Amino acid sequence: xxxxxxxxxxxxxxxxxxxxxxxxxxxxxxxxxxxxxxxxxxxxxxxxxxxxxxxxxxxxxxxxxxxxxxxxxxxxxxxxxxxxxxxxxxxxxxxxxxxxxxxxxxxxxxxxxxxxxxxxxxxxxxxxxxxxxxxxxxxxxxxxxxxxxxxxxxxxxxxxxxxxxxxxxxxxxxxxxxxxxxxxxxxxxxxxxxxxxxxxxxxxxxxxxxxxxxxxxxxxxxxxxxxxxxxxxxxxxxxxxxxxxxxxxxxxxxxxxxxxxxxxxxxxxxxxxxxxxxxxxxxxxxxxxxxxxxxxxxxxxxxxxxxxxxxxxxxxxxxxxxxxxxxxxxxxxxxxxxxxxxxxxxxxxxxxxxxxxxxxxxxxxxxxxxxxxxxxxxxxxxxxxxxxxxxxxxxxxxxxxxxxxxxxxxxxxxxxxxxxxxxxxxxxxxxxxxxxxxxxxxxxxxxxxxxxxxxxxxxxxxxxxxxxxxxxxxxxxxxxxxxxxxxxxxxxxxxxxxxxxxxxxxxxxxxxxxxxxxxxxxxxxxxxxxxxxxxxxxxxxxxxxxxxxxxxxxxxxxxxxxxxxxxxxxxxxxxxxxxxxxxxxxxxxxxxxxxxxxxxxxxxxxxxxxxxxxxxxxxxxxxxxxxxxxxxxxxxxxxxxxxxxxxxxxxxxxxxxxxxxxxxxxxxxxxxxxxxxxxxxxxxxxxxxxxxxxxxxxxxxxxxxxxxxxxxxxxxxxxxx
Amino acid sequence: xxxxxxxxxxxxxxxxxxxxxxxxxxxxxxxxxxxxxxxxxxxxxxxxxxxxxxxxxxxxxxxxxxxxxxxxxxxxxxxxxxxxxxxxxxxxxxxxxxxxxxxxxxxxxxxxxxxxxxxxxxxxxxxxxxxxxxxxxxxxxxxxxxxxxxxxxxxxxxxxxxxxxxxxx
Lengths: 721, 169
Description:
heterodimer, A: 721 residues, alpha+beta, Aldehyde Oxidoreductase, domain 4, seven-stranded mixed β-sheet, five-stranded mixed β-sheet, B: 169 residues, Ubiquitin-like (UB roll), DNA polymerase, domain 1, 2 domains, 5 strands
């Protein structure tokens, strides 16, 4: 093979930009193998899963792999940790890198003992030659192996049946620290000379700082740049008290900028919009056989027509930990940042861009935060820390947001509203389907569409101006229209997204993006159509679904939930299904609810197919957590605001699910080992919402189409009928 | 600034601090016990829970003057030397965590429950954890872990059922 042919071999996506082995793997001074990936731990267990893959390829025990913190200076750039893509993006890269490293060490051992490489085997980290005395290790051979070489795509990774760890429920590597209360989170970082920093946010979005009166605050440094106002000092309690003192001393020019909370539907439909046509094949419509076409919409064939509109409000990430970051400006101009961002490389470039720094002078290292479930304030906090640290060079500054700021200034998941219209023939088959969904954009991450995406940058004396949030392209799974295309066999299909080009409320990515509302709408509507057709919702779906893997998860969930068995009065069962992004995990959920005074989700039975399973308990945990969180969104959550500011700023005004409200869970893993591994983190969000709403309809005979499914929403739906 | 005396995880401590400083800041910044987490600063989420004379208390809104002479136990104090508390062992066995930020406070609530009710049933566990929030959605795993911690040794597990390669806690 020529060099050009080697180059032409397809590399896993994340190796194209990071092809040098030492960027990923090094032998550490303690003899363990250090693996530094570009994906980050968010509580989803990704580092454990990737360590399993690496250990298998290297033929070492899991304990011999040390997962190192992602770092912009020393580690690979794998973009964002988002979209349930870490296993499918990073997994193949890690496997091939590890297989390359193993091959190089075998070669080095063969040289050492002057034998053919075929006589070298590796087992549990011991590298063995043909002679009984010929044994060495990765640590002992490290000097003889140069890992500053490009990955060779021809090296074979192991076959499925040779894996020792992959496919087992290996315990999470990070949990022992967290259960013992050892320092593990970014919040626990304590660097020499570190100061505590807090930002005094404006009283409302867009408010301008007019003046700050002089205050006497010993030991406190007040930092101001335009409308960015912050304090820093060595005593955390004194710093938090100073926040209130400086806030009271500041005067602001504030305006009403927010839309009417009670008319989000009207707000979302008011343009201009970007029109995103997912599919539009209405022109090819034939008149429905035997039925004179009286189309409700031009191009839609005849039959009974069904229409409905569904919506969700703005929802918050509502991480348990307020966002936190540490920044440190060194005397030589280097800037070091620690962040729990999902995209440290983008963050580093955005910081450099916002302050016109040489990107090479900015290093960002990942440090674990609490679960974020999307683009929360992690990146904003990092930039806050940078701005404060700039005023106190030489001192690391740790910024921590308040709970109130976290629930009101971090980006939200956009409110959405969707119109569905379909026709049903006399045999109960759907003969057309038309879907329009309205939303703000679903990503405003740093670096996206070229903007810094850092909250404080808009408030500086020379403010950055941001465009409205955008949507990821279709190749990345889309945003407004993620999962807007149903997985069913539907003729005359029209699916169109309408992304609002202005955003009065800051929105960005939250777990599953548009898929949560889109699947809720589609799957609620499938039940409404089944009711009109006089069919069982499961049978109706199966009659429209030819995808065999989809059918399997649907049947598995139904079987696990004893679908069709009688329930007491006031209880109902409902089904929801989707394949995430149309190409990720298959997931079907059966919810059992009790709906009398309020909606109580008693039980969720969930079947999921993620292809080859790397860590079964990890998949279960992600699905359970996703479904539980989706239950919280679906029955409780709504960001509240008046025309001036967000008013749901604590756990009483933004309630989330409590222990007594958490449904019992059963997860069925439908195994398809020959299929590529796909992520599990977001697969359950939409199907869970739909299953709950369908169960409420089954229990009460009332269709609730506006989330969340609170007592008020149920009453409103009863009155509307 | 005042000297305030208290016992933390069995050790006598004297802290020179403003009496209004929340206990949480003293634990995290003066005593290097960072296992208690800041979640809301209003006592509404449970991430900062500690035991004060055996009662479950939100350390984020407990001023130092109020714990003078009292005994505080944090998540770091639940273990007996190298041996984790049985509820910590069961949380690892169930892998009852995702991000783990809420876990310290939940362990504190659970340990207090097990102290007064050594064999709690599921409703008792749910009631005891009702003041703790978890956003990742591990509530059901956590309930299983705490119920199991109250069961006799033979009913308990030291590693997850499906676990092929345990990481020693």
